[in-house]
Amino acid sequence: MTTVLVLVxxxxxxxxxxxxxxxxxxxLLAILLVYGWSTPGLYLWSGGFSPTREGLWLGFLQVVRLxxxxxxxxxxxxxxxxxxxxxxxxxxxxPLGLLGVNRQRWALRMxxxxxxxxxxxAERQDWRALWAHISQPLDRxxxxxxxxxxxxxPLSVPQxxxxxxxxxxxxxxxxxxxxxxx
Length: 182
Known about the structure:
70% of the residues lie in helices and 0% in strands. The protein is an all-alpha fold. Helix 1 packs antiparallel against helix 2, helix 1 (2-12) packs across helix 3 and helix 4 runs antiparallel to helix 5. 5% of the residues are buried.
């Protein structure tokens, strides 16, 4: 399923997906290397510095999962306006209210952070220039106030059903692991 999602997204948004994968290449390679050389299993060749077949396979699976998540995020960012995303983050942060977290402030901070990162990454620069830019104090253009509108739409019946299904699956997973683990 992930492969189909990635291929369809490449067909529609090739430039955006290529840019995303180029930015993530070091992380994806690091995941593959960490799993390949730290997971026990059958060594690919004799010697002290050999990856395991199982480790490379598990690393590959994690890379595919991460690319699938990032591809899903590309679809989400492509289909939602900033205000709708802010409203969604606000709704999904409702359980944080039980912990005493002000979800309006939390959702606003998340939205502003995503907006800041999007504006920063829109400027084409290499990682050294990006790091230098982050290390410097912000100039006045970045400190200008911006309007953020909270558009809270009630959840539809399918959305409520999906959230309930996810909650049931989380509870069943916790019960399953509680029975397996002592």
